[in-house]
Design brief:
The complex is a heterotrimer of chains A (110), B (170) and C (393). Chain B has 170 residues and is mainly α. Chain B is built from 7 helices and no strands. In chain C, 41% of the residues are buried. Classes of the chains: A mainly alpha (110), B mainly alpha (170), C mainly alpha (393).
C-alpha cells in the first residue's frame, strides 16, 4: 500500500462504526417485530447479522487481530445456510397456507 | 473533512437509508433491493476498515447469492403488496421517540465510556495497512481449520434440507 | 487527474468496440450462413452500428402501465454500469510503461483484482432478475427467472475453474498473474497457464458462454422460445443498454480468459526474436494495402470515399506503429487486443454454428457435468502442487 493509503485507513474512530452497527441492529429488530410478511422478517434478520458483522470487523481493526475477520467469514457462511433453509420453509408454508402473512400461521396458538 | 470521512458518512447514510426503506416498504421486492443497498455500503465500509477480502466475500456471497435467493423466492411466490397492519396507535406514538432516546443513550455511552475512548483511536499492534488475503487464509486454515470443515458440513446439511423441503411431493 | 483521462479514453474505446463488435458479429454470422451481412450502410457496412444507434435513440420509449416503475428503470442501468465497471480492472499492457508516475495501460491495480471482478459478475444477476420481475408480464418473468438461475448456476463453475490458475500463480493480482506466465518451455513455447490447466480452460470457456447468456446457452432470451426473454418489454434506449451490457460482458469475459490462461499482454514469441517488434506496424500496413486494393477495384461512389478514409487510417496507423519509440510500447496492447479478438471470434463462431440447449439440459449440464469437472480439476491441481512439498517433509 502506498503511504497515502495508509494514512487514509486510520482516520475514522472505531466508535463511529459501532454506533452505525447499533443503529442498523436496532432497525433490524424493529423490522422483525413490526413486519407481517415472513420474507421481510427474514430479511430483517439478515440486516441484524450484517450489523453484527460490521461490529466484528470494526473490533478486529481496533485490536489488530484477524480473528474478528474469521468470525465474519463464518457468520456469512452460517447466514447463507440459514437463509436457504428458511426460504425453503417459507415455500412449503406458502404451499400449505396460501399466504405470506405471519398472522395467518397460527395453528399452534391456543 | 478528509476523503475517508466523506466516504464514511456517505456509506453510513446509505446504509441507514436502506435499512429504513427495508422497514417502510410495502413491496417485498423493494425491501430486498434496499437490503442489497445496505450490503453494498457495508462492503465499502469494510474496505475502509482495511478488510478487503471480507468486502469481496460480502459482495459475492451476501449480496450476490443470498439476496439473489431472496429475490428468487419473492418472484416465485409472487409476493405482492403487504397487508396493512392494525398495530395500536400507542405503539407508534410512544415507541418511536422512546427508541430514539434509547439510541441516543447508547451513542453517548459509547462515546464517553472507557470502552469507547480507549478503542476510539487505538489501532492495536498492527500496522496501518489492511489485512491481506494471505494473512487471513493463514489464520483460517491453520487455527480455525476445524470450524472451517464443520461449516462445510453445515452447508451440506442445509443444501440437503432445502432440497428436501422445497421439492414437490408426488 | 491522469486517472480521469485514462477512464475517459477507456470508456470511449470500449463503447466504440461494443458498437463494432455488433458489426463483427453480424458479418461473421452472415458469412457462416452464406450471405453478406450489412453491406449497404457505409463501405462494407461499417456505418451500420451508427445507424443502429440512431435507430435506438429515435424509437418510442414505452413503459408498460402495470410495471414497477423504479425497478423497471434501474434494471438496464444496473446491467450496463456493472458490465462497464468490470473493464476498469483489466490491464491492457505492461505496467512498466508510465506517464507522470502512473501506469498507462490499466486504470486500477487491485491486489484482489480477480475477486473483485467475480464480485461484479455476481451482482450482474440482479439486472436480469429485476428486469424480468418488473415488467409484470409472463414471458419476461419466465425469461428472467430462467436466465438468473442459469447465471448463478454457471457462476459456481466459472469461479472454480479459475482456482487452478490461482494455485499456480499464487496471487489474485492481475499483473502478477501475467508476469507469472512469462518465460518459455523449451525456449519457444510460452509458459501460459492454458498448458497445465487445459481442463480448467475448457470449463472456464463453457461456463463463460453460459454466464453471458450466449448461444448455445441462450434459451432465456431466444426469440423462438420466449419472445425475447427478460427484455421483451423494453424498447429504445433501455433495450440498447441491455444489448450493450451483454456485449460488454462478452468482452470482459474474453479479457479475463486472455489474462488468466493466455498470458495477457505477453507476446507468444521469445523476447530475443527482435523482428516481432515490427508485427503490429507491419500488419496494419498490410491491412492498409489490402484496403487500398479493395477501394480501387470494388468500391464505387460514396463507399469509395469512405473506404479510402479507412485505408488512409490503416496506413498512417501502421506507419506510426513502425516508429522506433512507439514500436516497443505498442507490443503489449497489440497482443492483448489480438487475443481478445480471437476469443470474440470464437464466441461469434459458436453462435453461428451450434444449436441451443433446452433449459433442463442446460441446468443438468451445469450442475452434473461442469461442476464436478471443475472440482476434479481443482483437486488434481492442488495434489500436483503439493507433491514436491510432501517429499521433503
Amino acid at each position: 500500500m502506498d503511504p497515502g493509503e495508509e494514512k487514509r485507513l486510520s482516520v475514522i474512530p472505531i466508535s463511529y462504526y459501532l454506533v452505525l452497527s447499533a443503529i442498523l441492529f436496532g432497525l433490524g429488530a424493529v423490522g422483525v417485530v413490526f413486519k407481517r410478511n415472513i420474507i421481510t422478517i427474514l430479511m430483517s434478520i439478515e440486516l441484524m447479522l450484517n450489523a453484527v458483522n460490521l461490529a466484528f470487523v470494526a473490533f478486529a481493526r481496533a485490536h489488530g487481530q484477524i480473528d474478528g475477520l474469521v468470525f465474519v467469514f463464518f457468520v456469512i457462511v452460517v447466514a447463507a445456510a440459514e437463509s436457504a433453509v428458511g426460504l425453503a420453509i417459507v415455500i412449503m408454508l406458502t404451499q400449505n397456507r396460501q399466504s405470506l402473512n405471519v398472522e395467518r400461521i397460527n395453528l399452534l396458538k391456543f | 473533512m478528509s476523503v475517508p470521512f466523506i466516504v464514511f458518512f456517505a456509506c453510513a447514510f446509505l446504509a441507514v437509508l436502506g435499512a429504513v426503506l427495508l422497514i417502510f416498504s410495502w413491496e417485498p421486492i423493494h425491501s430486498a433491493l434496499s437490503l442489497v443497498l445496505v450490503m453494498m455500503s457495508l462492503a465499502v465500509l469494510y474496505l475502509l476498515l482495511g478488510a478487503e477480502f471480507i468486502a469481496a466475500v460480502q459482495i459475492i456471497v451476501y449480496a450476490g447469492a443470498i439476496m439473489v435467493l431472496f429475490v428468487f423466492v419473492i418472484m416465485l411466490l409472487n409476493a405482492g403488496t403487504e397487508e396493512r397492519t392494525d398495530a395500536s396507535k400507542l405503539a407508534k406514538l410512544a415507541g418511536v421517540p422512546m427508541g430514539f432516546f434509547l439510541l441516543l443513550l447508547i451513542a453517548r455511552w459509547l462515546w464517553t465510556s472507557v470502552v469507547g475512548t480507549t478503542i476510539a483511536n487505538g489501532l492495536g499492534a498492527r500496522s496501518n495497512a489492511g489485512v491481506s488475503t494471505r494473512e487471513l487464509s493463514m489464520v483460517l486454515f491453520q487455527q480455525y481449520l476445524f470450524p472451517f470443515e464443520a461449516t462445510s458440513i453445515l452447508i451440506l446439511v442445509a443444501l440437503l434440507g432445502a432440497w428436501i423441503l422445497a421439492r414437490k411431493n408426488d | 487527474m491522469v486517472s480521469l483521462v485514462k477512464i475517459a479514453v477507456l470508456l470511449f474505446v470500449v463503447m466504440t468496440a461494443l458498437a463494432y463488435l455488433t458489426w463483427f458479429e453480424r458479418k461473421v454470422v452472415a458469412r457462416i450462413q452464406s450471405r453478406w451481412g450489412p453491406y449497404y450502410v457505409g463501405a462494407h457496412g461499417l456505418l451500420q452500428p451508427l445507424a443502429d444507434g440512431v435507430k435506438f435513440l429515435f424509437k418510442e420509449d414505452m413503459t408498460p402501465p402495470t410495471a414497477d416503475k423504479f425497478t423497471y428503470t434501474i434494471a438496464p442501468f444496473l446491467a450496463l454500469m456493472l458490465a462497464l465497471t468490470a473493464i476498469a480492472l483489466i490491464p491492457f499492457g505492461s505496467p512498466a510503461i508510465q506517464v507522470l508516475g502512473q501506469p498507462v495501460f490499466m486504470v486500477s491495480n487491485l491486489d484482489i483484482g480477480l475477486l473483485f471482478l467475480f464480485a461484479i459478475t455476481s451482482i450482474g444477476v440482479y439486472g436480469v432478475a429485476l428486469a424480468g420481475w418488473s415488467s409484470n408480464s409472463k414471458y419476461p418473468l419466465l425469461g428472467g427467472l430462467r436466465s438468473s438461475a442459469q447465471m448463478i448456476s454457471y457462476e459456481v463453475s466459472l469461479t472454480l475453474s479459475v482456482v487452478g490458475v490461482l494455485l499456480i500463480a499464487g496471487t489474485l493480482n492481475f499483473n502478477s498473474i501475467i508476469s507469472g506466465q512469462s518465460g518459455y518451455y523449451f525456449h519457444f513455447i510460452p509458459r501460459w497457464h492454458v498448458i497445465p490447466q487445459l481442463v480448467g480452460f475448457l470449463c472456464y470457456i463453457t461456463a463463460a458462454i453460459a454466464e453471458t447468456n450466449r448461444i448455445p446457452f441462450d434459451l432465456p432470451e431466444a426469440e423462438t422460445e420466449l419472445v425475447a426473454g427478460f427484455h421483451t418489454e423494453y424498447s429504445s434506449f433501455k433495450f440498447a443498454m441491455f444489448f450493450m451490457a451483454e456485449y460488454a460482458n462478452m468482452i470482459t469475459v474474453s479479457c479475463l480468459a486472455t489474462i488468466l490462461f493466455f498470458g495477457g499482454w505477453l507476446s507468444p514469441f521469445p523476447d530475443s526474436w527482435e523482428w516481432q517488434l515490427f508485427i503490429p506496424g507491419g500488419g496494419l500496413v498490410l491491412l492498409g494495402m489490402y484496403c487500398a486494393w479493395d477501394t480501387v477495384v470494388n468500391m464505387r461512389g460514396i463507399a469509395q470515399l469512405q473506404f479510402a478514409v479507412v485505408t488512409l487510417l490503416c496506413l498512417v496507423g501502421g506507419a506510426i506503429c513502425l516508429m522506433p519509440g512507439v514500436r516497443e510500447v505498442i507490443q503489449g496492447p497489440f497482443w492483448f487486443t489480438t487475443k481478445v479478438i480471437a476469443f470474440l471470434f470464437f464466441y461469434v463462431w459458436t453462435r453461428g454454428t451450434l444449436p441451443r440447449f433446452r433449459y433442463d439440459q442446460l441446468m443438468d449440464f451445469g450442475w452434473k457435468l461442469l461442476l464436478p469437472v471443475s472440482l476434479a480439476n481443482l483437486v488434481v491441481t492442488s495434489f500436483v502442487m503439493i507433491v514436491p512439498y510432501l517429499r521433503h517433509g
